[in-house]
């Protein structure tokens, strides 16, 4: 496989590869790993740019598993539907139906027990500066799988959507084990 195809499949594009490379030292310096106590987390809140692919997929995947989850985008158009390619790949490859999803913007209302999980360092920095979102604990979703930057697949190949969604799936698998109180109906 030519190098360009490998980059497109694994990182989205050269920009995604560069952002991933930069995210490792940024995450180490900023300390955006997952350090929240399991008993303090009641809901996972996924954050991305437009809330139409990555965070939407993560939210619906968690909800399908019976976990408390929500999502929003730092530059979302409130009410926008999930991206068509995201809908197709999510349903065909993962059995996750995004057709009902509607984007939420930064007017999102955080609750006690929320853990905000961003796809990129710059999104963490953005929500840290918003008064309504600066208090809940924050981390990089990809930090749980040692991939701190989950590049936006919007407008990229279906192969990269799969790569991105696979990373999100692996991260959610680990979060489900780490935070057992996320299951809806958990009483303790």
From TrEMBL:
It holds the Pfam family LMWPc. Residues 42-178 form the Phosphotyrosine protein phosphatase I domain. Gene3D superfamilies: 3.40.50.2300. This is Phosphotyrosine protein phosphatase.
